Amino acid sequence: MLPKIKLSVWDYIAILICSVPAFYLLGSPAIYIWDEAVYANASLDMSQGHHWWVPEQAAYNTKPPLVLWLQAISLKCFPWPEFAVRLPSALSVTGILIMLSMALKRWGFTQWTRIFVLVCFVGNEGFIRHHIGRTGDLDAVMSFFVFGYSLIVLDAIHFNRWRKRHLILFFLMVIFSFYAKSIAGWMMLGPIGIIWILSPMRNVLWSKQFFLGGILSAVICMFYYVSRESIQPEFMRLAWHSEYLRMFSNVMPWHEHGFGYYFKNFVSLHTYTPWIFFLLAGIGYSLFILKSKSVNGHLLRWIIISLSYMLLISIPADKLEWYDAPVYPFFALILGTVSGHLADRIPNWWKITMLIPILFIFWRKINFILSDTRPRHPFEYEGAILRQIEDVDSVKVFMPVQTPEHRLQLDFYRKFIFQKTGNEIKVFDRTNDLLTGDHIIVSNENVKKVNDNFNVDTLKSWDGLGYELKILTLSSSDTLKIQSQ
């Protein structure tokens, strides 16, 4: 996309260092329930020879399978399942860092500006967090391709030149963004279209080549729906309800939030605090104080893209906190460029002092990652224990649930253990199914149910998660306590 660009040694060092928050302790947390567990199960099934076009649990996997393919390949290559499932997301972070560095170098920005932009991208909880850059969800990979097609357009506008390679790479990125997360990968086309129409490059949009490229891309993307419908009848109806209808009506009341949801999250969920205040100051500085015509042009385009995207995703009633993922590279461009412009006024011999706040930002980020490795939901406790047990030959799990989906995280570890050892971990949800002599895993949430019915021997206590127990005899009293070994 950006030919004849030679990054400096400092660029490569900055990319490597800024990739650390994405990879540090990547495999330490157990698989998370809900989205990550759904995709992890599907990709693990694919890696074991199941269908690569229609995932298992197809009702929950309506999105195109590109990310699942990447995860399945990763699971085949690496023996650490959590790391393997999350690796495509972490690599997407590094990919975005590389694209940022190359684009800024191509557009003539200074070394310090390039470093500041990278730090502003990874130094907060915006992109490098749960559900995006550090989990096996779809959004990080999608954001990589979204940012890719955005940069292609921005590069063409900057140089006022649209060549054949721009056309090919643009539509490839558009197609890949769709195959990463369906039409969510196309939402940035609206904001990009605004700056495109406002630029001298607007004539490209009406060209025959662009029209044919759009038609071909649409056909390639529609092929997914048509082919899957032929394999999985009623899929189109399911996809319409799951992916498209939520854009216009509230199909999931538990995901309903007001218009200002994402803006409030910057502060209430600390996803972008205190960075949001610096961003607002940077936007004000860009619009009213900064006088560099070339820099102003870039900043204005990035501001339009960022605000337009935030407004666009705020319209549907159905919202989830990580749907803002694609906007964070543009936030970083705004913040880092303004910081670099201000840094240019500092004498060279004082610029080394800017490493102090950068080091503080990284210390804070790494410290946050260290504190965020434990399970977040009670449905993750049993799996978090099971993954740590070395001898699973006779282990069973007691886990009462209301729906099978509550066991998705546990099911992932059961499948992985079966693939690795051939041992099938049995799961029970009724105490009547437990027998004397059973070696069971039970969470803190459910241990009382076992206590009330059996005398047990505590084989091991897993701090904050639950217990390994051995069933001794039926309890003669409902008030029996767990007996320590």
TrEMBL record:
The keyword Translocase does not apply. GO terms for molecular function: pentosyltransferase activity. Keywords: Cell membrane, Glycosyltransferase, Membrane, Transferase, Transmembrane, Transmembrane helix. InterPro entries: LipidA_mod_glycosyltrf_83. GO terms for cellular component: plasma membrane. The keyword Glycoprotein does not apply. GO terms for biological process: lipopolysaccharide biosynthetic process; response to iron(III) ion. This is Glycosyltransferase family 39 protein. It comes from Candidatus Opimibacter skivensis. The lineage of its organism: Bacteria, Pseudomonadati, Bacteroidota, Saprospiria, Saprospirales.
